[in-house]
Design brief:
about 240 residues, alpha/beta, binds NADP nicotinamide-adenine-dinucleotide phosphate
């Protein structure tokens, strides 16, 4: 038994999700982090159990509706209803619009938007019964600004913010908050793969003149997960070094 607050973090193997999972695990949460593979789940399990053996890693592929429903049912059966759900998992399939294939469009919408819908489908009903909880969706500055080469990603993240505002209104009276954190450019695998010239062009648009650290997103997520944030819902908090 643990008196810690149960938190589910999707995409916890690396980058922002791993930083969020570790931060929550160090601040009074029992954290279940997800990975798309068994080896990824084992790796995040090892990281989180070094903090507290009650933490765990599980396999979850939010791009697959059937696997998501089964994995999250097993999660609920084993651990109960979470108070904190962080929808962090996400992908990019960048291409200029004229070259963007149906597959590139579908993959990003299916993972970054429909994937969050699927996780919320599984979690919201038990959370409503529990009458407390918070859902934190990781959006992106690109959902606000758009970005050449990222029409699919921008559409998914802008959609995620609209989804968040709507769901927040439906569940607010049951003491459940739903918010987005919208990072700017954060140093992770997702940005490491960008060509050097593109990274320099991005940095030129960041008033702080540096990429953000995953831990800086984790801090904002931890705040939204805390009791200090109980009157914040339906919002998008931007963490981006001053970009507009
Ligand atoms: P990352 O380093 O590429 O990590 C992505 C995570 O998502 C991994 O844990 C990955 O799991 C998981 N994932 C990918 N596809 C999945 C699927 N179908 N089902 C479940 N999990 C899946 O990404 P990141 O940079 O940390 O980004 C995390 C979130 O922040 C994303 O939503 C991203 O859009 C958003 N964001 C990032 C930045 C940035 O600058 N990095 C900026 C704005 C927003 P595996 O390891 O198992 O593949």
């Amino acid at each position: 038994m643990t008196d810690k607050v149960l938190a589910l973090v999707t995409g916890a193997t690396r980058g922002i999700g791993r930083a969020v999972a570790e931060r929550l695990a160090r601040t009074g949460h029992k954290v279940i982090g997800t990975a798309t593979s068994e080896s990824g789940a084992a790796a995040i399990r090892e990281v989180l159990q070094a903090i507290d053996p009650a933490n765990d890693g599980i396999v979850l592929n939010i791009a697959d509706g059937v696997q998501t429903a089964e994995a999250l049912k097993a999660f609920l059966d084993q651990h109960g209803t979470p108070e904190v759900v962080v929808n962090n998992a996400g992908i990019t399939r960048d291409n200029l619009f004229l070259r963007m294939s149906d597959d590139e469009w579908e993959a990003v919408i299916n993972t970054n938007l429909t994937g969050v819908f699927r996780v919320c489908k599984a979690m919201v009903k038990p959370m409503l019964k529990q009458k407390t909880g918070t859902i934190i969706n990781i959006s992106s500055i690109i959902g606000t600004t758009g970005n050449a080469g990222q029409a699919n990603y921008a559409a998914a993240k802008a959609g995620l913010e609209g989804f968040t505002r709507s769901l927040a209104q439906e569940v607010a009276s049951r003491n459940i908050t739903v918010n987005c954190v919208a990072p700017g450019f954060i140093k992770t695998d997702m940005t490491d793969v960008l060509p050097e010239a593109q990274k320099e062009a991005i940095l030129a648009t960041v008033p702080s003149k540096r990429l953000g650290q995953a831990e800086e997103i984790a801090g904002t997520v931890a705040f939204l997960a805390s009791s200090d944030a109980k009157y914040i819902t339906g919002q998008t908090i931007h963490v981006n070094g001053g970009m507009n």
